[in-house]
RNA sequence: ACGGUUGUAGUUCAAUGGUAGAACGUUCGGUUGUGGUCCGAGAGACGCGAGUUCGAUUCUCGCCUUCCGUCCCA
């Protein structure tokens, strides 16, 4: 029997799983602090719905397709946003929902890029510019909690478009030009210039790599200015990056990305778009890149209770500690040596012995696994 | 998807056209009131298939897989 995982899919266990869960919890906690409500949606949807309005778009060529016994044409979701069309119906606006879960893409894998991956999205249907600033602040807070220094870049799709029209770039080439410009964070200027030449757009490179001051003459730079004003109120520092576009064709307003300051990696992205004609804003975090760069520690059990022939009392103590929110691992049937060994390997902070001595005196022997120090403590002091 | 690359225990690595070894981890014991040390024992692997060969883990081919690059990234 073959037990190996499918290409691009993997198991996460032990410390790795604990760390991933910790990251998920930090994100979830912040989402809720900002008033987003949770949502759960199906992983499988009709292929037609997943593909959306432009079924030939490259963007959707990587969906996993499947069918059921009724021969329905189905697919695995590859992102969350399209499902908002359904969720947002008949909701009091602004409707703020967050969702954390798996998405799937049948695409080549690479370090930090699997075919099954966790995305954490927070979106506001019926948003204003204040919401964009709020999303940016939310992002900032999350990375602060993770202890990761980041840079926040912003831009506006309408500004990009205005410039391309202004420079007389043919409409059929505009989208590709935007894609090439977006690569300026990865490729050299020269390479991008070469790619732009083929599209008759090499002259715009100079504009998009120019100084911020030179953008003030464009009408839609006003949007950047406005967003910056709000960001200032929230205390978020952002940087205008004129060539930032994000590949998505659905963005129609502000776009932003949060980058790791140490490594040239994008950790989080988002922007404004329409959901059934309603202006909306969203932010999306991928767990995998954050996992690779973050130093957050996962949290296993805090305490381990070891019964030394006093199972009833040990169970009672463990349950009482758990009621107080302490994570307890209870060991009843292992030799002491083995039990300590186990505590070691699981990184437990303290072990508590429950044996004759403890039951008689009402004081438990507590051993600190790092220092080896032992103390006798009453239950309420544990 | 394309080009290159990789494949031996859970992991990291050996060796070999004729019985596949180690380290770490794991299990058990020395050790039912004290761990991180030590000692002993056990379990555990040639990605899959075809071909060449008396015999293939080793050579050849196909598939799968690994990693890197390109395309793309909603």
Write up what this structure looks like.
- With 382 residues, the protein is of the alpha+beta class.
- It folds into two domains: 14-293, Bira Bifunctional Protein, Domain 2 (BirA Bifunctional Protein, domain 2); 303-381, Rossmann fold (3-Layer(aba) Sandwich).
- The chain has 13 helices and 16 strands.
- It has helices spanning 14-33, 47-51, 84-87, 129-145, 157-166, 171-182, 189-197, 203-208, 221-234, 287-293, 311-323, 336-345, 356-361, and strands spanning 37-38, 44-46, 65-67, 73-76, 95-104, 116-125, 150-156, 239-240, 251-260, 266-275, 278-286, 303-307, 328-331, 350-354, 363-368, 374-378.
- The strands form three sheets. It has an eight-stranded mixed beta sheet with strand order 1-5-6-11-10-9-7-8. A five-stranded mixed beta sheet has the order 13-12-14-15-16, with helices on both faces.
- A hairpin with a 5-residue loop joins strand 3 (65-67) and strand 4 (73-76).
- Helix 1 runs antiparallel to helix 4 (129-145), helix 1 crosses helix 10 and helix 4 packs across helix 9 (221-234).
- It is elongated, with a radius of gyration of 26 Å.
- The chain starts with 13 loop residues before the first helix and ends with a strand.
- The relative contact order is 0.12.
- The model has no long low-confidence stretch (mean pLDDT 90).
